[in-house]
TrEMBL record:
Name of the protein in question: UvrABC system protein A
Keywords assigned by UniProt, alphabetized: ATP-binding, Cytoplasm, DNA damage, DNA excision, DNA repair, DNA-binding, Excision nuclease, Nucleotide-binding, Repeat
Gene3D superfamilies: P-loop containing nucleotide triphosphate hydrolases (3.40.50.300)
InterPro entries in alphabetical order: P-loop_NTPase
One term of GO molecular function: ATP binding
Amino acid sequence: MEHNLEVLKRADWVIDLGPDGGRNGGELVFEGTPEGLLADRASVTARYLRRDLGLDTVLPKGRR
């Protein structure tokens, strides 16, 4: 998955492989729209993207 925010903002579909590189990578972690990724509360990638986009601050407490 490209971690460039400008690329992600313009993408129609994202594929996130991981959870790490090498032997611990290559697994399909997420596939779908960028909005779907940001809504995925189990995704480590989404957690960092929400932080970088400033979106975690708008979530109600208990929903983080």
